[in-house]
UniProtKB/TrEMBL annotation:
<dbReference type="GO" id="GO:0005524">
    <property type="term" value="F:ATP binding"/>
</dbReference>
<dbReference type="Pfam" id="PF09383">
    <property type="entry name" value="NIL"/>
</dbReference>
<dbReference type="InterPro" id="IPR017871">
    <property type="entry name" value="ABC_transporter-like_CS"/>
</dbReference>
<dbReference type="Pfam" id="PF00005">
    <property type="entry name" value="ABC_tran"/>
</dbReference>
<keyword id="KW-0547">Nucleotide-binding</keyword>
<keyword id="KW-0029">Amino-acid transport</keyword>
<keyword id="KW-0813">Transport</keyword>
<dbReference type="InterPro" id="IPR018449">
    <property type="entry name" value="NIL_domain"/>
</dbReference>
<protein>
    <submittedName>
        <fullName>D-methionine transport system ATP-binding protein</fullName>
    </submittedName>
</protein>
<keyword id="KW-0067">ATP-binding</keyword>
<dbReference type="GO" id="GO:0006865">
    <property type="term" value="P:amino acid transport"/>
</dbReference>
<keyword id="KW-1278">Translocase</keyword>
<dbReference type="InterPro" id="IPR003439">
    <property type="entry name" value="ABC_transporter-like_ATP-bd"/>
</dbReference>
<dbReference type="InterPro" id="IPR003593">
    <property type="entry name" value="AAA+_ATPase"/>
</dbReference>
<dbReference type="InterPro" id="IPR050086">
    <property type="entry name" value="MetN_ABC_transporter-like"/>
</dbReference>
<dbReference type="GO" id="GO:0016887">
    <property type="term" value="F:ATP hydrolysis activity"/>
</dbReference>
<dbReference type="InterPro" id="IPR027417">
    <property type="entry name" value="P-loop_NTPase"/>
</dbReference>
Length: 354
């Protein structure tokens, strides 16, 4: 298990002025789970990544792996501890002049592992990433996705407890990205490692992460289970995790319901129930819906051809009973492309239903 406790990182600029890049990060990644860290450029993702991989030491705070605080170590103890964290880099960072097998063997060779044992372990690792047949190839002969899988095999060589994936799917085509993410989800299940997925790709977060932390100006602005955040629907995180394209104004639509489907299982009959509950027209204006194994995850925009409060309350009551989260937008001008929900016209389920 990885625990990051009140982590601060300060740098000193050339002028002597101190700058605090990480301002008290708290994050726990249990064994066998994947936590994504996302955030805008400059938020501090790379700095956090370097601190987790112990390439840089934090100014204060703790980085605990299975309860052991690695942030206070130095010298040999620090070098040894680095083994418990395997890093997968953005462009695989393989050495181009040696073969795939030799790349994977490097961490073992540096540790002085005996030749026979090393060969067996390299074969096992390449088998795990489905690239044993490329053992004698050179990195330049691999696709981007294959090179990244070799990077994962190398990161696993020393049996780390933590896998840190630093933008490892950036720049890959969708198929290779899917393969890498599937591999990571298999690894967390098979090996029970804790995985930190630093990424700017929300598709990757939705596809692989159990939890996500939104980093902003060196602080965690929002953190939670991916499905919970999408299901809440009212936070900036939901909008980033599952963006809904703006919908055009539709003649006759007087009320817009923004409905979120998240971690709560819902009866698919809700849409029919909604249509029956109001005597006005009900239309699906837009949205995004994804299949997440046992249930759909999504955000939908539904239009009602009425702004009668009893009708709207009846619609909201149906959605509420189905366990769906809804934000209501009403008035003469809805929906308008790209216009954010008008605060005065936006009410939550409880407010409207009450
Ligand atoms: N060595 C350093 N000295 C001073 N400031 C630094 C140093 N390293 C990073 N910073 C600053 O810390 C802030 C966070 O940088 P960081 O690279 O961690 O952000 P990021 O979220 O990874 O951004 P990006 O997505 O663009 O890579 C930036 O304002 C950056 O200028």
């Amino acid at each position: 298990m990885l625990e990051i406790v009140d982590l601060h990182k300060r740098y000193e600029l050339k002028t002597g002025r101190p700058v605090e890049v990480l301002k008290g990060i708290d994050l726990t990644v249990p064994d066998g789970s994947i936590t994504a860290v996302v955030g805008p450029s400059g938020a501090g993702k790379s700095t956090l990544s370097r601190c987790i991989s112990l390439l840089e030491m934090p100014s204060s705070g703790q980085i605990l792996v299975d309860g052991r605080n690695l942030s206070e170590l130095s010298g040999r103890a620090l070098r040894d501890s680095r083994r418990s964290i395997g890093t997968i880099f953005q462009h695989s960072a393989l050495l181009r002049r040696i073969t795939v097998a030799e790349n994977v063997a490097l961490p073992l060779r540096n540790l002085g592992v005996e030749h026979g044992e090393m060969e067996a372990r390299v074969a096992e690792l390449l088998e795990r990433v489905d690239l044993l047949h490329k053992a004698d190839a050179y990195p330049g002969q691999l696709s981007g996705g294959q090179a990244q899988r070799v990077g994962i095999a190398r990161a696993l060589a020393l049996r780390p407890r933590i896998l840190l994936s630093d933008e490892s799917t950036s720049g890959l085509d969708p198929r290779s990205t899917h393969q890498i993410l599937r591999l990571l989800t298999e690894l967390r299940a098979d090996l029970g490692v804790s995985i930190v997925l630093i990424t700017h790709e929300m598709e990757a977060v939705r596809a692989a992460a159990d939890e996500v932390a939104f980093l902003d100006h060196g602080r965690i602005a929002e953190h939670g289970r991916v499905a919970d955040l999408i299901g809440r629907g009212d936070s900036p995180a939901a909008g980033q995790l599952l963006p809904v394209h703006p919908v055009e104004r539709v003649p006759g639509v007087r009320t817009v319901l923004r409905v979120s489907l998240g971690s709560v299982p819902v009866d698919p009959a809700w849409f029919g129930d909604l249509a029956r509950a109001v005597s006005a027209g009900v239309s699906l204006l837009g949205g995004t819906l994804e299949d997440h194994g046992t249930r759909p995850l999504g955000r939908l925009v539904i239009g009602l051809d009425t702004d009668d409060q009893r009708q709207v309350a009846a619609a909201v009551a149906v959605l509420d009973a189905a366990g769906l989260r809804v934000i209501v937008e009403g008035g003469a001008d809805v929906p308008v492309r790209g216009r954010p929900a008008d605060a005065d016209l936006t009410r939550e389920v409880a407010g409207v239903a009450a």
